[in-house]
Amino acid sequence: KNQVEQSPQSLIILEGKNCTLQCNYTVSPFSNLRWYKQDTGRGPVSLTIMTFSENTKSNGRYTATLDADTKQSSLHITASQLSDSASYICVVSEDDMRFGAGTRLTVKP
Amino acid sequence: EAGVTQSPTHLIKTRGQQATLRCSPISGHTSVYWYQQALGLGLQFLLWYDEGEERNRGNFPPRFSGRQFPNYSSELNVNALELEDSALYLCASTLGGLSTDTQYFGPGTRLTVL
Q1: Which neighbouring-strand residues pair with A57?
Q2: Which of B33, B40, B6 is nearest to A46 (CA)?
Q3: Model confidence over A57-90: pLDDT tens digits?
Q4: Which among B88, B100, B108 has the least Cβ separation from residue A32?
């Protein structure tokens, strides 16, 4: 069983709308949680990284939150753009990195 | 500054053959990670090299192997290829070997096994 579960598996929104992606994990203890954006056919690009003591981290229109008690993280995207269409991957690190399967986001005009 | 580079971009092999994939990290980075991303699946950790040594490997059979050269570039070898080895193979580099270091990914090598 994957120790990092992401939801939804896919999401379609209209340009300009906000959305929230979820990541639940069972990795414990963990040292940090990252969110990556992966465009089709490209390597992932780091968006945010949070240690277990951090609750939120922003990178432009991307805001990640972390609740270490419930072992949940979310990635909120504000005022979506067409270029936000990509897969978003949650990664939890302990001794090694555990990857979620990703959420495929499609932003339509 | 050049990012992580990988070669070849695409590789087509037949079952039983061997494949060699190459990765050059960002200048100054000493750690290299290899991942497999099969179609529709998440990234699976393969191997981690730091300072020329294998530091960790994922749950893959021994026919997946690699090495890191003195210039920190790395090679991933897959022997006795099987159809299910078809995937995007991603390489990432970090400045050091800490789990908090940001990983910078290359564009990947698309391996197709026929």
Answers
A1: A64
A2: B33
A3: 999 999 999 998 899 999 999 999 999 999 999 9
A4: B100
